[in-house]
Design brief:
By secondary structure, the chain is an alpha/beta fold. The protein is built from eleven helices and seven strands. The structure holds thiamine diphosphate.
């Protein structure tokens, strides 16, 4: 979570300095969801991170250096400078690169998990989606299909109260999004999306059960988008009181307090983690900055499949 927070804070600054090609969309304030669930997976599991899931990439082995290479459009980065944004992944580590069409990746994970299981690999999948994207047809199709075929996919809704400027009240009429689980005949649970420790325990238990007895689960995580949709958005439409309520429940603060209360990690150890992550971010940024942009002569390479 510290790695993601500090990386994204640096990216925000770079964006406002005009050093990023394209937009910056952060998961600041939502780090617990990706971190807690992705750390709960096994080595052969599949993940489909969405816009605000840098913690999933990091938890599944991507380096801070590679993330800076991606955002700075370096030839050495995960998309070799073809994309300067969230469309990166690492299939070798079971992480799909997202495409922009929200909802589309849910079926991809479902199919990927089914394929692995047919080959005798006991994989489970975790797919992430925002509250707004639950209104897509793809969401419905993927959940229904996964339920009918008992595909062990944890569908994680990050309910951060807004889809761009559209509030939940204009997005859905059910009391909670998890209510939809019954319609698909699957288990649905609600969790505090800012409590990394509690969520990690829940995710470990859920994934272990799903691996044992394959079936999908819908998990709605309560959280809040703490910045604009992207850095171009000042989010003036967000009620101040709402933002303040969640600022007081910052996931890093909750993790620090929770782990200290359990005697698992004292304040000094937590501070050391922050310091180490800051050093990693500084070094990663400096190295990526020194690396080359792609050679224009290679523009179509890796974009089209070789015939
Ligand atoms: C199918 C589809 N419709 C619209 C968009 C444009 N779009 C990109 S992000 C976004 C808001 C998504 O809101 P939500 O799913 O709640 O996720 P959040 O941004 O809050 O994390 C929209 C409308 C898109 N990428 N794909």
């Amino acid at each position: 979570m510290w790695r993601a927070r500090l990386t994204e804070e640096r990216l925000v600054r770079l964006y406002h300095q005009g050093r990023i090609f394209g937009g910056v969309y952060t998961g600041i304030g939502q780090e617990a969801i990706g971190a807690a669930t992705a750390c709960a997976g096994g080595p052969d599991d599949l993940f489909a991170p969405c816009i605000r899931n840098m913690t999933v990439h990091l938890a599944r082995g991507m380096s801070v250096l590679d993330i800076f290479r991606q955002y700075l459009g370096r030839a050495t980065g995960p998309t070799r400078g073809r994309d300067g944004n969230v469309h990166y992944g690492n299939l070798a580590n079971g992480v799909y690169a997202m495409i922009s069409h929200l909802g589309a990746m849910l079926s991809v994970v479902t199919g990927g998990v089914m394929a692995r299981r047919r080959l005798g690999r006991p994989a489970v999948g975790v797919a992430y989606i925002g509250d707004g994207a639950t209104s897509t047809g793809d969401f419905h199709e993927a959940l229904n299909f996964a339920s009918v075929f008992d595909a062990p996919v944890l569908f994680v809704i990050e309910n951060n109260k807004f889809a761009y400027s559209t509030p939940s009240s204009s997005q859905y009429r059910c009391a909670r999004l998890v209510d939809r689980a019954a319609g698909y005949g699957m288990e649905g649970l609600v969790a505090d999306g800012n409590d990394a420790v509690g969520l990690h325990r829940l995710a470990r238990e859920l994934l272990a059960r799903m691996r044992e007895k394959p079936r999908p689960v819908l998990l709605e995580c309560d959280t809040m988008r703490m910045r604009g949709h992207g850095e171009h958005d000042d989010c003036s439409y967000v009620p101040k009181e709402l933002a303040e309520r969640y600022a007081a429940r910052d996931p890093l603060r909750l993790a620090r307090e929770g782990l200290a209360a359990e005697g698992a990690l004292d304040a000094a150890a937590f501070d050391r983690i922050e310091k180490d992550c800051q050093a990693e971010v500084d070094a990663g940024y400096q190295q990526a900055l020194a690396e080359p942009a792609p050679d224009p002569a290679t523009l179509t390479r890796g974009v089209y499949a070789d015939a």
